[in-house]
Specification:
The chain folds into two domains: 41 residues, no CATH class; 116 residues, Trefoil (Acidic Fibroblast Growth Factor, subunit A), CATH 2.80.10. The protein starts with 14 loop residues before the first strand and ends with a strand. The longest helix has 5 residues. It is built from one helix and 15 strands. The strands form five sheets. Strands 3, 4, 5, 6, 7 and 15 form a six-stranded antiparallel beta sheet that branches. By secondary structure, it is mainly beta.
């Protein structure tokens, strides 16, 4: 004998299906059994979200040096490409964002991560294009192309991940 539907205990609703994606409800314990929680919406919606399990460690401005001489700071232009700027006031405030064993650098208060394009320009991308970095001493190395943070010239001002250019030493000026 089966119970009438109105007498069966209601199953706890764990997710909201708002805007075509699954979101855990506030104050509820999430059930991670995949068979019980089939996704709604597209994979692209999930791929473009920022992971929530990691937290920012600290904030800083990145001072850039060559042969012990400070050239400037890490900034960005209107196209969101990384450039050398001449003052700390123009520099970006970054936060270290460790996630799944990889270190990322994110612009404070945004979802833009320091990344490397296919032609070695350093820029700031959303999470789907984020690239990790490894710090070796005072040098940053891109996990994408395994090249060091560099500059071609102060006149050009763009920053690259390219060993053939002038490799930069970095110092994190905490904020």
């Amino acid at each position: 004998m089966t119970m009438p539907a109105r007498m069966r205990p209601r199953r706890m609703q764990l997710f909201s299906k708002a805007r075509g994606s699954i979101q855990p409800l506030q104050g509820e314990k999430m059930n991670l059994n995949p068979i019980e929680n089939q996704p709604h919406g597209t994979f692209a919606e999930f791929a473009n979200t920022v992971p929530v399990s990691a937290r920012a460690v600290d904030t800083f401005k990145m001072a850039l040096y060559h042969d012990g001489v400070q050239l400037g700071w890490l900034g960005q232009n209107s196209g969101e490409w990384a450039i050398l700027v001449d003052s700390a006031a123009k520099a970006l405030t970054l936060e270290q964002y460790p996630y799944n064993g990889v270190t990322y650098y994110r612009i404070l208060g945004t979802s833009r991560y320091m990344s490397v394009s296919n032609n070695a320009y350093v820029g700031f991308y959303n999470w789907i294009g984020a690239r990790g970095w490894t710090r070796q001493g005072s040098v940053l190395i891109s996990d994408f192309n395994h090249q060091k943070l560099s500059i071609y010239s102060k006149d050009n001002a763009y920053l690259y991940a390219w060993d053939a250019y002038t490799v930069l030493d970095v110092k994190f000026d905490e904020q």
